[in-house]
Amino acid sequence: MEIPVIAIQALIILAIFGITLLIATYCTWAERRIAGFLQDRPGPNRVGPWGLGQPLADAVKLFFKEEFIPANANKWLFIAGPSLAMLTALMSSAVVPFGNTLVLEDIGPIRLQGIEVNIGMLYIFGVVSLGVYGIMIGGWASNNKFSLLGAIRAASQNISYEIALGLSLIAVLMMSGTLSLREIALQQAEPLFGISGMNWNIFYQPLGFIIFLTCAFAETNRTPFDLPESEAELVGGYHTEYGSMKLGLYLFAEYVNIIVVSAVMSTLYFGGFNFPFQNEIGALLSNDPRIAHNIITILGTVVFFLKIFAFIFFFMWVRWTLPRFRYDQLLNLGWKGLIPLAIINIVLTGGFILLSEHFGW
């Protein structure tokens, strides 16, 4: 019996959501283990071997805690805030290509991607821009001054850094000529210095990557840009009044956003599912072109997740290394530092493209 392609694609979408949630769950464990390592202490090590059962214990605790809504809060918006934050976080992973295509008999090529649209980067940028509304709605609906201050900080922080984030992307789009994440990844499969799968954009856009990485920290509210939930000043910021699974949705949404932004950075600047010597490895492992292609696809997906894990580790490493910015420093960096640098990067990229066309590089 032939399986419809749309059914296979639906299974891939469900698998992407499931894997994303699983990684987000164990990011809580990794965060505490890495923090313990950097601070020379064990971290969670009681629930299961190496503390691997701790995230499950935390999830059970959050599910069974008492549901509490403050008396003067706007009930429906109070519930809608964390729900919107989680929804937008999960939606943004739909267009990320987690691998190339698997060529199967009687079915044809299957893309390891939720949906492929030619405006994938624009889609992610739009969905991520909506994510801040979950924070703003939750902070305002709580009827708490600390929550409201956290929501205001989140709104101004996202506005400040989304501009530089968008400008840093323009340089990559100028070079690739497409908004499709899949096409951008495939372009980086070309050989560089005779090495297949190494034509990564990081070699052409180092400044753009640094700007994008800095803005990614601000967009995900991670230290040193965690001003919206600054516990030393705002108790807990926008989720001060939240408990049980509504708090869990906010915390999960943050980790899902980290996973998605790590996947996007890997795709835009580090070749996505491409890896060095991929064509040579495929030829060594099989003489059948279809089998060799499928082997490269599976290895590429594994490599892609390793790149994502490396970025997640970097996010956690920075959290336990750098102190939090003051608010004036945060805004000055965004408006006076990153935006001018991003514009300079666009001008330099345009000049490089014109020179390369003129001299035939």
Automatic annotation (TrEMBL):
GO terms for cellular component: plasma membrane. Keywords: Cell membrane, Membrane, NAD, Quinone, Translocase, Transmembrane, Transmembrane helix, Ubiquinone. InterPro entries: NADH_UbQ_OxRdtase_su1/FPO, NADH_UbQ_OxRdtase_su1_CS. GO terms for molecular function: NADH dehydrogenase activity; oxidoreductase activity, acting on NAD(P)H, quinone or similar compound as acceptor; quinone binding. Coiled coil: none annotated. The keyword Cell membrane applies. The chain crosses the membrane at residues 6-29, 76-99, 119-142, 163-182, 202-218, 249-271, 291-318, 330-355. It catalyses: a quinone + NADH + 5 H(+)(in) = a quinol + NAD(+) + 4 H(+)(out). NCBIfam families: PRK06076.1-2. This is NADH-quinone oxidoreductase subunit H.
